[in-house]
Amino acid sequence: MANINHAPSKYMLNLLHVIPAVIDESAKTINAIVEVSAGSINKYEIITESGQLKLDRVGYSSMAYPFTYGAIPMTWDHDNDPLDVEVVNITEPLVPGSLVELRVIGLMKFIDGGEVDDKIIAVLSEDKRQEHITHVDQLGEYFKKQTQYYWENYKALKKPGTGVVETFHGPEEAMKVIAECVAKYQSEYAHKVQ
Question: What's the domain range around 77?
Fold first, then answer.
């Protein structure tokens, strides 16, 4: 699990900047850091600069996250944050701040307040109950409807109409987006890391 290419340190490492995004490209496995566990209305975020988990906000409504949610390290999306990931089919809550290995099964193209804010869709790579799931389409149409409804309405009481789900794609397109966000991290953010 997560071999860190970093010398031992007496300080806590910021995993957003020392753990690679992709573990095995051919197996479509990636690293992610859990921010929010399924069923929570609290929105936690990892502070990009320091690595601590911060309560960003309490949800604006009673809508809870229908999936576990996190960030992919060493990536930089168009919204100037690490690339987001939805971890689906979780059988037991994951602890916010924990590092998980995932297998990518898809991508949801999403616009939030006019900005690209894509969401990678993945399952736990070592969960044998998920081995047969290799594509977002295998989750069924209801999953897509529920996910779309969540993202288009989770801010509706504060900023109605700001979230727009465009399309769902398979793992190949998702891996392309991850590669783009890894390159964007290297060109736009890596030089800020000390």
Answer: 15-192
Q: Is residue 6 part of a domain?
A: no
pLDDT digit string, tens, across residues 66-92: 999 999 999 999 999 999 999 999 989
Q: Which CATH number belongs to the domain containing residue 56 in this structure?
A: 3.90.80.10
Distance CA 65, CA 77 (A): 21
Contacts of 69 (CB under 8 A, 6+ apart): 34, 35, 36, 84, 85, 86, 87
Count of helix runs (H) and strand runs (E) in the chain? 2, 10
Query: CA 93, 97, 103 angle in degrees (round to 5)?
Result: 65
For the whole model, what pTM was predicted?
0.94
In a domain, 164, yes or no: yes
**Number of domains the chain is built from:** 1
Amino acid at 111: I
CA 162 to chain centre: 20
Residue 96, helix vs strand vs coil: coil
**Gap between the Cα atoms of 136 and 168, Å rounded:** 8
Give dist(CA 49, CA 56) in Å, integer: 15
Q: Which residues of 82-106 are buried (b: 16+ CB within 10 A; e: fewer)?
A: bbbbbbbbbeeebebeeebbbbbbb
Q: What residue type is 185 in one-letter code?
A: Y
